[in-house]
Structures are given as C-alpha cells and as structure tokens.
Amino acid sequence: MKIPSFTGLCATLSVCAITVGALSTAANAQQAPESVSANDFIALFEKLGGKHAGFRKAHAAGVCATATFVPNEQAKAYSNSVLFEQESVDAIVRFSIGGPNPLADERSSGTRGVGIQLNLPNGVKHNITGNNTPFFTGKDPETFFGFLQTLLPNEEGEVDRQATGAYIAANPSVQNALAWSQSHPLSTSYARDTYFGIHTFYMQDESGELTKFKWTLRPDLGEEHLEKSQTESLPEKYLEQRLLQDMEDSTVSFTLVATIGEDEDEALNPSIAWPEDRTELTLGRLTLNTAGGDSCKPINFDPNVLTTGFKASDDPVLKMRSPAYGISFGKRLSNQ
What we know:
By secondary structure, this protein is α+β, with helices and mostly antiparallel strands.
C-alpha cells in the first residue's frame, strides 16, 4: 500500500506553506492537547459544521438500508459467538459521508462510512462500523482532536492552512489517512467501495483463546471509481440514487473478511495498517434488500456493542467512540 510522501501530501492539500527551517518551531507550536473528552469532540464537530438538530454529529449525511447477513460457519473455529450458529440474520445498514453537515456535497473527496447492526435472537445486537480508509487520522483521540482544531476558521471565516500544515508536520500519525483520502478516487456508489474496520478486535473460542483481527467489507460488485470530469457532472447528492440503481440492476452484496494479526502487529494505534500478506478468514456475506427510509435513524452504531465471542481492544480511539456516539445519539433523539 503506497502512501504519498509528506512533501506530496503538502502539495495535494495545499496546506504546507512553511519552510523546512520552520518545521522544528512549528512542531513545538502544534502539539496535540494532553487530554480530550467525548463532549469536547461533540462541541468541536458543531463548531466545524454548524448545529444541525436531529442529525448525527459526525457522518450526518447518509442513507439507510435493510440487509441479510449469512455467517460463515468455519469462523466457529475462532469464535464461539452465537452469530456463527445462525443460518442468516437480519441487519440494518447505514452508508454515510464524513462530516457533521447533512447537506454536504457528496462530490467532495473525503471519508465514506458504513454502520451495520446485526440483529440476533433474543434481542442480541452486534455492531460493525468502519470507513473507506484503512487508517485513522491520528494515533489517539488527542492527536485527531488537535488536527480538527486547525480546521476551525478565524473571525474572517478563513482556515489557517499554514497552521494545518505545521500540525501535519509535527504529528506524522495523521499523514497516512490524509494522504489516502486525497489520493484515493471517489467510488461511483456506496455499493462499489471497500470499507475498513481500522480498529483491532479479538475473536474468542470456547477455550478462551483470543485471535487478533481487523475486518474489511469488500463489495462483491467490485470497486468502481469516478474520474474527476465525471465527478464534476454529478449532482451534489448522488449516492443514494446510485445505490438504488445498483440494487435495481443487480444484487448488491459485500463479503466480510477478518485479517488475522500477528503478535507484532500494532493493536492500539489505528493510524497504522497491518501488512497485506496476513491470513484472511471470511466471516460472512451481507446482501442488501432495500434502501431508503428511516430504518437506521433510531440506531446507535456503537462498534463496542459485540456478542459474546468477540472482544474490543484497548485502542483509545475505539474506546472514545462509545461515549461520543452516545452523546450524539441522545442529542439526535432529543432534536438537539
């Protein structure tokens, strides 16, 4: 997986208008905060994108879908989850674009996301949440928060691109995600994008043995990307219609794969991707049935909601998601 150099990233983002001699000074001036809370993130998202009552505070724009998930029984060797005892389970899916603005232009480069809730017997839930980038923007919540702060406009409504560039220089763990986002072309449809579970989880078998993994959701239709000229001719909101068209033309499904980690693979830093030669295990197939409507509106896709037979890692970004999602969920339901 080739990622552009820092110099290439600067050229692409047009944010690095600082001299090499100023980098050490910039690095000292652009440190991540010592600590942040979930409430801090919610407040920052509202400053960046405005307050939009009744919408998610991040990934506000999206489309709901219903689906069926057929588990791979061979995964029983790794996990004693009730999930792998089922022939199939109903699922609710939400595809989205990054950011707090529900009216955001879908032609802009940036993150696409997916949230999946698997509905198991007796009310048991299992959530899966990921993005179309294999990296998180920072090694921890503080680094991510510090980067987002540099995007706040000043009193004249301008973002200080020099400050953003300085922060990128001082905090290398944000660079992989930014470079990927800027260099990876937009897909033609939610149905034709790959989504990554950037966090480490564990499967646990009957004996208690843990297997470290990250998941990937791959489109069975294959990836399909847009040329820049095609993007410019699209309407600002095109993704839901493209998804509906794909579903009308063919079966839209995804294969959920677990990449098995080795002992040396980083488990706590989601800004680092694992080597591409790791063993993979198919966990199952997700097939969309319908799209549109509000079936996912009352759902909080907290990725730490897991069945027995799965465990979350101590990744600090993953741990921050539960309170942040919870606060956003409460505000949305109370129309704040």
